Description:
The chain is of the alpha/beta class. It contains 10 helices and 15 strands. The strands form 3 sheets. Strands 3, 4, 5, 6, 7, 14 and 15 form a 7-stranded mixed sheet that branches.
Amino acid sequence: MKAVFVREFGGIEGLEIRDVGEPSYPKGKEVLIKVKAAGVNRADILQRKGLYPAPKDAPERILGLEFSGEVIAIGSEVTKFRISDRVFGITSGGAQAEMIISHENLLMKIPENLSFIEAAAIPEAFITAHDAIFTLGQLQTSENVLIHAIGSGVGLAGLQLAKTFNARVFGTSRSREKLDKSLQFGLDEAILIKDGINFAEIIKAETKGKGVELIMDLVGASYFQMNLESLAPKGRLILVGLTGGSKAEFNLGMALSKRLRIIGTVLRSRSIEEKAEATRKLAEYALPLFQSGKLKPNVDMVFTMNQVMQAHEYVESNRNFGKVVLTISN
């Protein structure tokens, strides 16, 4: 089968489409899927560069953390899916290939109104955002929420999910265009990040000094101190990404006096059981909302598998608003 393969770690020129060995026939609760489409994530960029090694249960050189496709074989203990079911889900790696083996508990059925391309844009972003906002962040109805990198796949997923709880959502971006587009997804307060901007001051002014109850941060160190200043008493900071660095000075006094909770999270390296629980929670909450159209996949650009270098270049340039998807097979 063909797969996106990292021939040499580093630049996009190290990527190629290579024939690799097919997965073995599924056993137990395993499901074999013919992959139709796969998401492209920043984790793929980092792995291509050799900066984000794959976990032990994933291929080192075949990229891809999320996919959609059709079930072509099932193990003897599989109860949730049948041959020809349309499914989508997450994996620790190897999604950008013509076939993939998955545990049935990491899969969801694709709502009838969604295409394979739309479905491939959902799993990584929406599971991450749902877990951060609801499971870890414990969002309550009508709270104030701050989401950094609002125009990213996870950012837009978080925005949509938070609005289902009637939250007032503040969003940051370095792109005015992305902020304007985010308003169409329900963003309440857009904050353009540029030199000299202190978003904490804006947050405090807009909330009459109270601050926000929850922050979902995909940036990290460069925003850390302003995040602490932005939080209301008993506020929760969920650290999802570190594009702005991984080391920051920590004002312990502010954390203590406000009784803050600071929680780090990562999805890829979790156990199958933990991933299955996060997948189950998203499916129960969000699939009916996708079916009704209240939630929408955030597809920005679609590339073919043979255009993978262009897809990486596009994501790395930070031009994407939402998700980039590769079509894998017909």
